């Protein structure tokens, strides 16, 4: 059904296997910093118009690969498609973040929730298959979902938040309801990711974008436990291939000891964590690391970008069998990024990471 | 000049000395969650009208102490008074954050900066003396400043930010200019805190509210190094009393190993850090810890507040000579907090922390 893979560097690094250089992709690599993305977005009329149209989603997913020799593609979609399919009514006002028509803050609203019919998310799975075909084996395709906790944040707040007041109020005052929401989210996310795998995703990533806002103790109970519940339900292989799983908790560097034994292949890190120190913790557990350049480095001149990229690679050190690195930003690329900065970054990572592997 | 101190629990705990219970104060304890604060704020007309009027500043500083048996008072002021005195023009639009009339993003703007004449900040020092007199020895008074890096964030961005794009662009692309700003900020902050100490502040706290947005490596170079430069210039004693120094880096839990040897008495922590684990790291360096309840706990029923407060106390464990704890939130109290929640918290901390000290 799909063309054979020509560049397996990303998948090999996820699985702890040796590669000639450090593979690289960027969170939100298909996005507003690219003029061709903004043109497609204008044609689509709205963000959800873009995300729900298979042709548009395919087009924008491939745009960064036309410009840069990146080592993976990631499905163009939103982390909030699952709660939208639960009937909460997702929308994006121009220039603003996501907003739900309904929020979930009491027993009645929780009682109405159910794992959504995957037919409602068919536009996502169709996009996965379409993108995989369009990639024609150039690089692997990553599928993704928000984590149960991150989805719950938006479901309870009804939108983004700067203090997470409503979701934390529910969590502290009614932990029973929060556990109900999270269990349901975990089962929905697992089904959603498994269906992406069946549709053609060659790796999957769980974005725990808001795990880092939790208190120590609450993170383990309300975020990590439900990420584990997702992982326990995921298909390990498809079509005879291992499907690597990546877990990224923004602000989660403090909890590496809690995450090092997760049933996944890769842990994503933001820029606050020292890669070498993190590697020492997770390498005995066979985990690869993904990250972690500050996206704001991309506002610097090319020389500075190259220097900073080399520092990230050097802080990880030379990869070894069972302890590998996937280069990425520590968060999504900024919409204000000059596209030529990404060229400088990709070149620096590919060149320097080959040098790192040369015998000393 | 000032009345003798009746409750020295806070100062003793800062200095690693034994106390009968764990002292407690709350960041932003004089603030919008109190109806009496909102009434004074309305009389003052604007936030800066409130902060620059000695009588109003004294009134609001004492308000929480009338309601709750807190163990310290903190000067009512803003962290941005120093860049305002540098001529950048601080204002607060109603319901919005701080805004500067000028920002500092290029060589010319940096060249214009200078350590401000402390006469321009006389309203702060007058408030310190007035508050100290009004306290009449009930509890000690804490003075404070933003850290050099945190001030720089606002000076370069010109306002709050969600991505710190401008300040990080300057930092990565023109580190020479950033170092100039930070050196100047450090010298200004040291002078500012020393003048607060002379005016009557019995302890001082440096708020590195935005240190946690920096990448590992950049934090040490651009934030911590300049906090050290402030600390090196601070008066160690005044009127024969040691002046305890507290350093609080929001999101700094990952860097405790870098901070444990700071020339200060107390490290403040946000809720993401486990107090017991942090204590094990810093106790050999004689540091006390301050924190770290999630302010969102205060939206729960009183029983839950008490349980969560006990968990924070228990996670630190029984204080010992040279390893002590000051209870606080992990960040400023939310304006939406029900005032009665603070009563429940104060009682729980005082009662349970006495029990912790009982022989087993």
What can you tell me about this protein's structure?
Two copies of one chain form a homodimer. In chain A, helix 8 packs across helix 9 and helix 13 packs parallel to helix 14. Chain A has one domain: TIM Barrel (Alpha-Beta Barrel), CATH 3.20.20.210. Helix content of chain A is 46%, strand content 12%. Chain A has 360 residues and is of the alpha/beta class. Chain A has a seven-stranded parallel sheet. A two-stranded antiparallel sheet of chain A has the order 2-3. A two-stranded antiparallel ribbon of chain A has the order 6-7. The model of chain A has no long low-confidence stretch (mean pLDDT 97). The relative contact order of chain A is 0.14. The termini of chain A are far apart. Chains A and B meet through helix 9 and helix 14 of A and helix 9 and helix 14 of B.
Record the SSE blueprint:
The structure is a homodimer of 360-residue chains.
Chain A: H1 9-14, H2 35-44, H3 47-51, H4 54-67, E1 73-74, H5 81-88, E2 90-92, E3 98-100, H6 107-111, H7 122-135, E4 141-146, H8 148-157, H9 165-173, H10 175-199, E5 203-208, H11 218-233, E6 237-238, E7 241-242, E8 245-249, H12 256-259, E9 266-268, H13 275-282, E10 288-293, H14 302-316, E11 325-329, H15 339-356
Helix pairs in contact in A: 2-4, 4-7, 7-10, 8-9, 8-10, 9-10, 10-11, 13-14, 14-15
